[in-house]
Amino acid sequence: MSSVQIQCTRCKNVFRDRAGRLQDGYSRQCPSCEVVLFFAEDSQHPFIKRAMRNARKVRKEIREAEAVRLAAPELHPARRSRSFAGRTRSAERED
Ligand SMILES: [Zn+2]
After folding, report:
1. Fewer CB near the last or first residue (10 Å), C or N of the chain?
2. What is the superkingdom listed in this entry's lineage (predicted)?
3. 93 in a domain, yes or no?
4. How far is the centre of ligand 1, averaged over its atoms, from the C-alpha of 37 (Å)?
5. CA–CA distance from 57 to each of 4, 19, 73, 93 (Å)?
6. Which residue has the higher pLDDT, 28 or 90?
């Protein structure tokens, strides 16, 4: 869900970590070969760059979903409103 794929720069093992943690300055060990991977925005390594990019994208999606929820807390997908019945957009059209 909110995790992104990371590929180890040494052993090429693929594992996952939370997008929220994968930010500039973050470091973590590869679960396979135990090398410490450093995540920096200015990293030149394609694996690191890709992981950072994916994490940014996932964080953005989370933020947007959160914003929608905060903007309309009462909005419920199961809720059906009949208040718009009879009111069509074409009625607003004037020349
Ligand atoms: Zn590794």
Report:
1. C
2. Bacteria
3. no
4. 9
5. 10, 9, 24, 40
6. 28
Q: Is residue 88, in this structure, part of any structural domain at all?
A: no
Identify which of 49, 62, 63, 65 has the alpha carbon closest to the alpha carbon of residue 7.
Answer: 49
Does the residue 82 lie in any domain?
no
The secondary structure element, H or E, covering residue 18 is strand 14-18
How far is the centre of ligand 1, averaged over its atoms, from the C-alpha of 7 (Å)?
8
Number of domains making up the chain = 1
| CA atoms of 58 and 14, how far apart (whole Å) | 18
Token pair recorded at residue 42: 């200015």
Burial (Cβ within 10 Å: 0-12, 13-18, ≥19) of residue 43: middle
Find the 46 Cα to ligand 1 centroid distance in Å. Answer: 15
- Residue 83 belongs to some domain of the structure: no
Ligand 1 centroid, distance to 15 Cα (angstroms): 9
